Amino acid sequence: MSRPEGGWEGGEYERLAAVALPAVARYVEESQRGTRPVSAPPPLEELIERLDLRRLARDGGLDGEDFAAWLERVLEHSVRLHHPAEIAHQVAAPDVPSAIADLVQGAINQPMSIYEMGPAAHAMERVVVEWMTEQIGWPEGGGGVLTHGGSLANLTALLAARAAAAPDAWTEGVDGTLAVLAPPSTHYSVRRSVAMLGLGERAVVDLDVDEDERIVPAGLGDALHRCREAGRRPMALVAAACATSTGLHDDLEAIGAFCREHGIWFHVDAAHGAPALLSPAHRHLLRGIEHADSVIWDAHKMMRTSAIAAAVLVREEWRLEAAFKQKAAYLIYEEPGETASSLLERQVECTKAALGARIFMNLAFRGPDGIGRYVAEQYEKTLRFWELIEAREGFECLSRPESNILCFRYGRDGQLQVRLREHLLRERRFHLSSTEVNGERWLRMSVMAPATTEETVEELLDAIEEAAG
Ligand SMILES: Cc1ncc(COP(=O)(O)O)c(C=O)c1O
Q1: How far is the CA of 392 from the centre of ligand 1 (A)?
Q2: Atom of ligand 1 nearest to the CA of 244
Q3: For a Cys staple, 323 with which of 163, 167, 185, 285, CB 3.0–4.6 Å?
């Protein structure tokens, strides 16, 4: 039978894949060996020009002939996440099984929010979420859902907290009396969620933090008092494991006990740090996480999956469904069942990518132990980098790292740190990030690639000294 007009042409798929697969494999290997410079983007308009994007979008015309050359140009302008000197952001250097999951899903396309729309992918999400709740150590009854990112996971968790504190808010809206207690260093998506949930950003009551921006547990009573004085009642308290800027962990044990004592919903943003639960030597950093009412966990940070695959997890599964009170009659079954399983009642998204497959493939091939070893190696390496940096004259670190995020600086001038970062990137030798902690500017590294070594950091410090003159 001939192929229908517009139908899938297997031959084309295989021809394009035969170009793309070796090109991508070569790109990742070169990145990993550090034989190519790190990526430094040209101005946006110039890049649009170089890749001929406008013409191709308007007129089409890319074919098998020029695909190879065009793809090379795309790769040349992509961030080399496996590169030893790519130490800027908390973005995973994906592992092979998860990359293959994306390849497969790209063709079979299983938007699996309801079981019948992607049975295998749906089952993988269910199992991954179940596995995550087990790692947290909650008693029976926990559950969750995967979301397109930690920001959406934070929003979903706070929506569940809102439903617990004000069950009528879904139909009646909020009345201006709710508050969320969080440190000023909390990820911006928390404040944004509070505003989106209709509480208004002013509903965030700042918690006291120490010089490393960690929540001071002894200051919690005072914050609660301030909250009540302002005529508000706490809807949730947010702690970090670990904080985006510093990579440091809040004291979940003490904060959890405070929340229990005062009946406050305890939300732990473990977007970055949750996979440390898989490393026996680092689990202790999350001690107390089991006291949380909700937790978020990004797999696309430390579980080596491509962006994006996050989870929102709750101690009591029903709390998530209580958060969403809508019915979409054409999709949602009246009664859940073996083949009527649906995630729509507990998530913002309708159509969803097969997020569970990305996570599942890494788990299935590497095992939780393998992922735990990766986390341990990145964390331990970063501790050695801290020693190296501290030993160099003129350099200092913010604090001893607890994860693979490390803040450091050369001298104390904030502007100098900004100039140094830009200079290194212009030279295409190192890609670092930068952050403010307690009003002071620091250089910041997120050590995501297995290829980053002590030699990389020695060279980085030499380059900084040279650039600073
Ligand atoms: C602690 C923390 N929470 C939430 C987020 C947001 O996650 P996402 O980028 O997946 O939306 C981040 C991202 O860096 C983070 O570090």
Answers
A1: 32
A2: 16
A3: 163
Between the CA of 148 and the centroid of ligand 1 the distance, in Å, is: 11
- pTM over the 0.90 mark: yes
Site to probe by mutation for ligand 1, drawn from 148, 187, 289, 301 as the one with most ligand atoms within 8 Å of Cβ, is 187
Q: pLDDT tens digits, residue range 440-457?
A: 999 999 999 999 999 999
Dist. CA 309–CA 312, nearest whole Å: 10
How many CB atoms sit inside 10 A of residue 74's CB?
Answer: 14
Name all residues whose Cβ lies below 6 A of ligand 1.
90, 149-151, 154, 187, 189, 240, 244, 269, 271-272, 298, 308, 310
Residue 332 clears pLDDT 80, i.e. is over it: no
